[in-house]
Specification:
This is Replication restart protein PriA. With 736 residues, the chain is an alpha/beta fold. It is built from 21 helices and 30 strands. The strands form 7 sheets. Strands 11-12-10-13-14-9-15 form a 7-stranded parallel beta sheet, sandwiched between helices. Strands 16-26-25-17-24-23 form a 6-stranded parallel beta sheet, with helices on both faces. The longest helix has 18 residues. It binds adenosine-5'-diphosphate and zinc ion (2 copies). One zinc ion binds next to loops.
Length: 736
């Protein structure tokens, strides 16, 4: 007798819990299983809670006998298509991250909370049958209604966003609705509109730019490092690649550093592509705007998707090219939760989608440079500045035994004065914000420490506060020593606020514009501050590394680097690389227009070999030397490196945990020249927000061996029952 085989349907879901596996459920009761598809969101019961999960796979068998039913399907929308699920699985694998947390990290907050996708569906206004029958001359006595009617007759259905932008008010729409002439219908989500930009045509490419474009084939995967001097026209390359794939009906993805996505950048792209729709995704967006932009990208309604780090996880079905601007920037590495590198994922994403990826920088990271020099990536150069700008002249200003005024040498102050007097602009780079990085008592030696971190409090004079730059701690400024009540208190060292005071006094006839995190707290503030400088009047810009990134200020002819020494003597092996990148980028702000530029670099160590190489030979030679040093020391990128991190209020617990982790790993893979252990050692910032931080470092010549070891140590560490201890694995860690 034949028995009908009852095919079981089992849902394999990514549930946001810190466990490195998927979970099986039965379909929600009463739901037609035909409505289910991988990539959808469902509510599931988990350990007494209700969690939002993502359906990853539908299977017929489960190793578990007793399965719970999922609670409910959130909506029909498939948010993660196959290629996107493949990328997220890769992330979970490579970074040893719990898959449920990877999906959660990929979702915008509003969608993670379970809001249905059609909440942001765009409303489209269309003519009813009756409306379609009207002549254009109808409604002559109501001119506003007539204008809207004519638009719909001529150009068809219109989105609510577009109607608003064109000034057709809701009242007019309602009037037509009441006459039964129009109706709203729901369509796919479109991105929120960007600020208006005057359309601007493309410049004629120079030879170098043309060669670069000719070398990138958009029909299949390739990875390219574009090593192009600051101002050589890399952005123009990104725009041309966008143009190419847009013309084929595909989407372009551009990643920018955290503080690189300025309204200026967006305007430049919007001005080039007025007929395309652009979704910008960055941390400055409100929750709803972010969900809307993301859904528009997923629905394919956005042609250009541009954003910071996490944009890399946005599912794009028509992807045509991936580009990473300032690929060396540290903000592409996520430093907590799922600790991925968006720059590295850009390459994985492009390979999965079989499209090209372009990594652009004037100061490539050693990782990318190594990949290019070893032939794994195509290596393209742009050595000339675009247009008629010339490279700046660099001068070293020794500061030892000089009579400095708040950190400025007489020579620097004289050059600043001369430049302003010529009607040009000056940029002063200071790598610390606030008034002074420490406050001390001259009588008893008391220092203002953060009670929660192993760091000093920074004095902010204008707000009369002492603030910790590593946690949120803040206290009022004191006039007398809390320890001995002496009134001789001194501020040690300098910061942007202190320099601003001096420069405002010394150059009282000119505006002094301070750009740091304190003056640019609001979304548009940076743009507003820089607008002053873009006007072209003589002025003095001073600020932190915010000023080093991507801004194009053609009237800046003098750049002063107040103190180049910060990174030369750090315990972090990446410090020289970062210092080199920062100095080269800051210097690159000088002379970007038709006026020639000059850079003054103040240092106490003009003879330092690394600094000399950087200033005389440029970043390219400097970086290649650093790569040779890393090879000798067996450090990344020559070897692979991962950290196991632990932090706890009780330092001994964190240390012990890592000591055990090391013993466990050593029992699997004993130390050898191919795989080495270091630690546990305290992190560079040993205590942060009240917790002591330690790490264990593992370097390996073989990435596969390291990976398999990390899988085992994660399984081991998941057994940790100490709730007050936090641990994490940080593959390709960037911070010690
Ligand atoms: P990068 O991104 O490499 O720093 P940009 O793309 O911002 O450089 O270009 C620097 C300046 O040169 C911009 O003002 C840009 O408009 C201009 N520019 C770029 N390419 C050309 C070109 N082919 N001809 C003239 N000007 C150009
Ligand atoms: Zn004192
Ligand atoms: Zn602190």
């Amino acid at each position: 007798m034949q028995q009908a085989v009852q095919q079981k349907i089992i849902l394999r879901l990514a549930v946001p819990v810190p466990l490195r596996r998927l979970f099986d459920y039965l379909p929600p009761e009463g739901l037609d299983p035909g409505e289910l598809a991988p990539g959808q969101r469902l509510w599931v019961p988990f350990a007494g809670r209700k969690l939002l999960a993502v359906l990853v796979d539908i299977v017929q068998q489960s190793p578990l006998a007793e399965l719970k039913s999922a609670l409910e399907l959130v909506d029909k929308a498939v948010l993660f298509h196959r290629n996107s699920r493949k990328l997220l699985a890769w992330i979970a694998d490579y970074y040893q991250a719990p898959i449920g947390e990877v999906y959660a990290a990929a979702l915008p907050t509003a969608l993670r909370k379970g809001k249905p996708a059609d909440h942001w569906a765009e409303q489209w206004l269309q003519l009813s049958t009756e409306g379609k029958g009207l002549p254009e001359s109808a409604l002559a006595r109501a001119p506003k209604q007539q204008a809207l009617l004519q638009l719909l007759l001529k150009e068809g259905t219109q989105s609510r966003t577009r109607l608003k932008a064109q000034g057709h008010s809701a009242t007019v729409v309602r009037a037509l609705q009441e006459r039964g002439l129009v109706e709203w219908i729901a369509g796919p989500t479109v991105p929120p509109p960007l600020p208006e930009a005057e359309p601007s045509p493309a410049p004629q490419l120079n030879n170098e730019q043309q060669q670069v474009l000719d070398s990138v084939d958009c029909s299949h995967f390739s990875a390219t490092l574009l090593e192009g001097t600051t101002g050589s026209g890399k952005t123009e390359i990104y725009l041309r690649l966008m143009e190419r794939v847009l013309a084929e009906g595909r989407q372009a993805l551009l990643l920018v550093p955290e503080i690189g996505l300025t309204p200026q950048t967006l305007r430049r792209i919007a001005a080039r592509f007025p007929e395309y729709s652009i979704a910008a995704l960055h941390s400055g967006l409100a929750e709803g705007e972010r969900a809307q932009s993301w859904l528009a990208a997923v629905a394919g309604q956005a042609d250009i998707v541009i954003g910071t780090r996490s944009v890399i996880m946005t599912p794009l079905q028509r992807l045509g090219v991936v580009m990473v601007d300032e690929e060396h920037d540290a903000s592409f590495k996520q430093q907590d939760g799922v600790r991925y590198s968006a720059r590295d994922l850009a390459v994985v994403l492009a390979r999965n989608a079989n499209v090209p990826v372009l990594l652009g920088s004037a100061t490539p990271s050693l990782e990318t440079l190594h990949n290019a020099l070893s032939g794994r990536y195509q290596h393209l150069h742009m050595r000339q500045r675009a247009g008629d700008a010339r490279p700046p002249q660099i001068h070293v200003v020794p500061t030892l035994r000089e009579p400095l005024e708040e950190g400025f040498s007489p020579q620097a102050l004289r050059h600043i004065g001369d430049t302003l007097a010529r009607g040009e602009q000056v940029l002063v780079f200071i790598n610390r914000r606030g008034f002074a990085p420490a406050l001390t008592c001259d009588d008893c030696g008391w220092l203002a420490d953060c009670p929660h971190c192993s760091s000093k409090l920074t004095m902010h004079r204008r707000q009369r506060q002492l603030r910790c730059h590593h946690c949120d701690y803040c206290r009022p400024l004191v006039d007398s020593c809390p320890q001995c009540h002496s009134r001789s208190i001194s501020a040690l060292g300098g910061g942007t606020e202190r320099s601003e005071e001096l420069l405002t006094r010394r150059f009282a006839d000119y505006p002094v514009i301070r750009v740091d995190r304190d003056t640019t707290a609001s979304k548009q503030a940076l743009d507003r501050l820089l607008a002053l400088a873009r006007d072209g009047e003589p002025c003095l810009l001073l600020g932190t590394q915010m000023l080093a990134k991507g801004h194009h200020l053609p009237r800046v002819t003098l750049v002063v680097i107040q103190d180049a020494d910060g990174g030369l003597f750090s315990a972090d092996f990446r410090a020289p690389e970062r210092t080199g990148q920062l100095l080269e980028q800051v210097a690159g702000r000088a002379g970007r227009g038709s006026l020639s530029g000059r850079v003054l670099v103040q240092t106490r160590f003009p003879e330092h070999p690394l600094l000399q190489m950087l200033l005389e030979k440029g970043y390219g030679t400097f970086a290649r030397q650093l790569l040779r040093d890393r090879a000798l020391a067996q450090l990344p990128p020559i070897s692979a490196m991962a950290l196991v991190r632990a932090e706890c209020e009780e330092p001994a617990w964190a240390e012990e945990f890592l000591q055990n982790a090391r013993m466990f790993m050593q029992s699997l893979v004993p130390p050898s020249p191919q795989l080495q252990y270091l630690g546990p050692v305290p992190a560079l910032l040993e205590r942060k927000s009240g917790r002591f931080r330690f790490y264990l470092q593992i370097t390996a010549q073989n990435r596969g061996l390291l990976q398999s070891l990390l899988v085992r140590v994660c399984a081991w560490a998941e057994g940790n029952r100490n709730r007050r201890l936090r641990w994490a694995v940080d593959m390709d860690a960037q911070e010690l």
